[in-house]
Write a structure and sequence with these properties.
Chain lengths: 317, 317
């Protein structure tokens, strides 16, 4: 297997103006994840580091820069999973921490539970020494404006309604090492204007995130409610496991079927147990990037595959 | 298809003394669900009614009689799903209502979200006119004693540790109508002594609950953390859909593999798209019952299949 770290920065209506920052962010995250994979050899460390990079980047809807719920607050979901032993950690309704994916990992490693939400999750964060930020610290001007625009759109004429609804920018990563070990991670602020307490697909194992060395690792993004009910990641891996599909073929089939049936869109990044990558979306755009060897591939539009060469970033530069 | 309502009352170490009440409870729930199926014709109504019956019964770990978390409080999970259109509703960290499954259904029908947890979920309950009980109203003497026993066991010698851990009594139902429409529902108080905020497999679509007319309807019970990470219900339905397994064959294979790999046990009830039932558990016991025509089948021990004949219960008796 060729060690690879593949990330996404969310599926949806990415504006032309947003593209440069999105591309920079996913490339940086893929490089950081790949660097960690080379140094620690751990796919779990790699996907965590890649997602941490995107959580700290205000251009993505995760950690700092998360969108706001109806009450103007940030409530975040995340999940991380290790394909070698199916260990996993999930968190929902996380607040005031910049790296929910690291809290998900701590839930996995420090508790006997796999999924903790709300104040109980923040209690773990406190016990585990997470930096608890003051309320509002994760909120950006862009997030405030997006909520305002969303609320205004509800009073607008029917044709304008929902135009700004949807919040591209969920982030995720999958990785594979030379031995075929895979891992997956997804982190999100959810949907602008969501009801408080709403949980999307990202923290749902088999919904938005899953990893199993015997089939592959997947992170999904898009309309969370639809991804959850269609069980997108589980359906995709079932095609790989039982139908002998490649990651790419399975991603195409599941997303096309979902979009046809429910008229909602989504995107997937995946690496299957053979080491083959899958990158597909039925939304207008999805930012993604991966590093394999000394190549970084990336894109935002359908069919786009840009390549940057050169040495992988090291800790020295 | 032969209309059928199949329920379970939880997998685990059911004591001999508890068996009579468990059998009564699951039989009553199967009859109630079947009666509703006959009168309204809706599999969704049927699984909701069957689970409501078990939620109101203190002999099961759902609604009234739910087990307590580490802080001595009840936090409940539930999910309901309709196989015809994959509509679904999920709730976590529900408090002070006797019927979390009905709140899950209301989340499905009254919001644009599929999963809401914590105070946000209770806000929906209030808006939808649920009867909000005073704090502690769902707590039984048995639940208090179970938490005390659990805490005591943590101070006991190694060999005694964990003896009372685990809380059989999660409840669930699946149903099929004459046209092949299926539905599934699961409701639980979780694990005795769980950390506050802990979420198990029950509300996770593809984890503990799923329904799709094209494959079948399933409700799982047992060690939630393991069921979630192994994605038990999604794996089982993949065997039905891609491997041409019956519900029973698929339940056996998935649960045997899970128990072998993780040394934790679980149980499944299922009806597949052909109308065939699956009832299987790797735990010591699981209470279950179903009504089909004028027969009610039920059991608790492996291989047990008792039958009661006679007219289905009607609203008059």
């Amino acid at each position: 297997y060729e060690p690879t770290v593949l990330v996404h920065g969310g599926a949806g209506d990415v504006s032309d103006a947003a593209i440069p920052n999105k591309k920079l962010g996913v490339k940086l995250a893929a490089r950081k994840g790949f660097e960690i994979l080379r140094y620690t050899g751990s796919v779990l460390d790699a996907v965590e580091a890649a997602v941490n990079s995107l959580e700290a980047d205000p251009n993505f809807n995760a950690g700092y820069g998360s969108v706001l719920n109806w009450d103007g607050e940030v409530e975040m979901d995340a999940a991380i999973m290790n394909g070698a032993d199916l260990s996993a950690g999930c968190v929902s309704l996380a607040r005031d921490i910049i790296n929910p994916i690291s809290l998900a990992r701590r839930i996995m490693e420090s508790t006997k539970h796999r999924y903790i939400a709300g104040p109980g999750a923040m209690r773990i964060a406190e016990q585990e020494g997470f930096n608890l930020l003051p309320p509002g610290a994760l909120i950006t001007e862009a997030a405030i404006k997006a909520l305002q625009d969303y609320k205004n759109s509800l009073n607008a004429t029917q044709t304008q309604k929902g135009v700004v609804y949807g919040s591209p920018g969920t982030v995720g990563a999958v990785a594979i090492d030379a031995c075929g070990n895979v891992a997956a991670a997804t982190s999100t602020g959810g949907l602008t204007g969501k009801l408080p307490g709403r949980i999307g697909d990202s923290p749902i194992l088999g919904g938005g995130t899953y990893a199993d060395n015997e089939s592959g690792a997947v992170s999904a993004t898009g309309h969370g409610e639809t991804i959850m009910r269609y069980n997108v990641v589980a359906r995709m891996l079932a095609l790989v496991e039982h139908g002998n599909y490649t990651a790419q073929e399975a991603a195409v089939q599941v997303l096309e079927q979902m979009t046809q049936r429910f008229n909602e869109t989504a995107g997937i990044i995946a690496v299957d147990y053979r080491g083959q990558l899958g990158i597909y979306f039925t939304s207008n755009r999805m930012s993604w990037a991966y590093q394999r060897g000394n190549q970084v591939h990336f894109g935002v539009d359908a069919g786009e595959d840009e390549i940057e060469f050169g040495e992988p970033r090291t800790t020295d530069n």
